[in-house]
Design a protein that fits this description.
The chain is an alpha+beta fold. It is globular. β2 and β3 form a beta hairpin. The chain has seven helices and five strands.
């Protein structure tokens, strides 16, 4: 005869496992997250600018892989885009990076399995998620960026930004014939445990 207590524990474990497997946290484009990645090769705790994310894959720029110059350029660009309240899409951001700072894409573009990421929002970036930002971390340049892009700071003065909305689109259009790296397999694009490498074109580049 089955033990009622045993059956109850088994059912709870099954429910917990199910909720974990179907409740994958989706990450927002234009924000920066810090956390752990189970299937890591070089960076156990990546710091990722999110380009695109669904329940299977997350595409982004791992800021830990940038040199000081590229990191400073990237955070400055995030500030200018937030300051100008640009209507940005993943495709436009990708093309802008390829055109203006291709080394960032070449060095730090990565694709992750979303279910193997355990991330916390550490910068709202160009989103409006400021109230959800986790501040107890040691990424000093992210703390500096967050001070700059706070709504009350963004609204001060009438600082001239690098691109108007029209100019931004014009500059992005110029990069359309640039070398396309979306088919390459990154060092962190292998399947969990055993399996062959994954190659999949970024879905946000289909249209």
């Amino acid at each position: 005869m089955a033990n009622p207590l045993y059956n109850s524990l088994v059912n709870k474990l099954r429910k917990t496992q199910y909720s974990q497997s179907t409740g994958t946290k989706l990450l927002s484009f234009g924000a920066i997250y810090l956390g752990s990645y189970t299937n890591f090769k070089n960076d156990r705790q990546p710091l990722i600018w999110i380009q695109w994310s669904d329940r299977q894959y997350t595409h982004g720029i791992n800021l830990h892989y940038l040199n000081r110059s590229d990191r400073a350029w990237f955070t400055r660009m995030v500030y200018l885009l937030a300051k100008g309240n640009q209507k940005l899409t993943p495709k436009n951001m990708y093309r802008l990076l390829k055109m203006r700072r291709y080394n960032i894409v070449k060095t730090a573009y990565r694709k992750y399995f979303t279910s193997l990421l355990n991330m916390r929002l550490v910068s709202a970036g160009v989103t409006n998620l400021h109230s959800m930002v986790y501040t107890n971390h040691r990424e000093s340049f992210i703390h500096r960026l967050n001070k700059q892009i706070q709504p009350q700071e963004i609204s001060k003065g009438a600082t001239q930004i690098s691109y108007s909305s029209g100019e931004l689109q014009d500059r992005i259009t110029q990069s359309r014939n640039s070398y396309n790296i979306t088919q390459r397999t990154s060092s962190e694009s292998t399947r969990p445990a055993s399996g062959s490498p994954v190659t999949r074109k970024a879905p946000w580049l289909k249209n």
